[in-house]
What we know:
The chain is built from 11 helices and 19 strands. It is α/β, with parallel strands linked by helices.
Amino acid sequence: MxxxxxxxxxxxxxxxxxxxxxxxxxxxxxxxxxxxNWVTIKSADDEKIIGNxxxxxxxxxxxxxxxxxxxxxxxxxxDLEISPVRDVGISVYGEKFDRAKVFEIKxxxxxxxxxxxxxxxxxxxxxxxxxxxLLKTGREYLVANNIAYKTLAVxxxxxxxxxxxxxxxxxxxxxxxxxxxxxxMVNLAAxxxxxxxxxxxxxKSKLKNFENCKLKIENYDFVVxxxxxxxxxxxxEAMMLGLNVVxxxxxxxxxxxxxxxxxxxxxxxxxKNQNDRVKIKIEKKDATKLTANDLPKEDFVxxxxxxxxxxxxxxxxxxxxxxxxxxxxxxxxxxLENFSRISNCKLQTANCRLSLVFPLFELANGQxxxxxxxxxxxxxxxxxxxxxxxxxxxxxxxxVKRQIVLLNLKRKTQS
Length: 415
Ligand SMILES: C[S@@+](CC[C@H](N)C(=O)[O-])C[C@H]1O[C@@H](n2cnc3c(N)ncnc32)[C@H](O)[C@@H]1O
């Protein structure tokens, strides 16, 4: 058993929940411990398998394995004796970066090393790690709670940015769900599906041509359904995991945007072989009026950002608050009520999980307006179970933040 560390992104609470959900799908592990902005686990799995999780997770920035039991300086010095490298990067988490202590490593080591030190915050970012080839010919050590870990994998910032800004179509007006958030939401929803085990891509996986993703979800008949698909950010991230996708939107333009973006992704991933393709279906539909026939035939989860309302430049006045509650709640309630009605005869499994974004507004009176809290009782009355407290996603200055809510709709038993 070895200890591994997962350094989490900005929304550490959500990222930890995502990690827990993904680990449950097929990584042997114990002692899942959440600390400041990282998680540690114990696992007997190969470090390559654990490192490859970086390709699955949206909320994890770095993954490392513990070097030894000693204090961090001695561990690093010993590790460099056993397997020397010239370029050594050090990132310190959770406490002040103490340059003197870091430089002691150089004097204690019998090897010739070049220290690569962070410019800001005591933490090397992906660009600095890449520029100094620390994961290729050098090494980065992560220090947390006086323990040293060797970095196994770092999130590929360019690949995420390319899906965020490089895709052919996006629609700023209807809001752009950040890809990392979309990925976390897909992972949180997909964990419910017992069959969606992850497996090492080095196996004879159907999806071996995927460049960026070494671990996939195994159950290929599993579908991610986004009934408010916009320009397709949820479906793009589901496809990155090798999942089949079904999307719909009331707007013709959104349907075309999503289709074009998914074709772009297929080309990027260089999927030439028909067997390697995931199934894609995108249609124009009103999500509040779906019928049972519109739902995917396979097991599915719903992952979606229905509506955050109009873009806001200032905190909402009392009058604006009233209108927002009325308009936005109506859309969510109409959709959820209709879905609970039509899904019963259609669900393959005993239940269906939904991972949804609800808006959270800053009000001019200093309070907050949570659309979810306004309508949670009605949602429960439709038969949904609230699976977790809402996860907050947003920066302090944002007037409209997001709350991520996991719902579970139990199939009603026939009497
Ligand atoms: C916030 S956007 C979705 C963003 C999307 N998740 C993405 O990342 O690109 C909301 C979408 O819901 C669609 N929409 C609004 N009302 C709808 C309805 N009744 N049925 C289906 N789609 C609807 C809008 O056209 C818009 O594209």
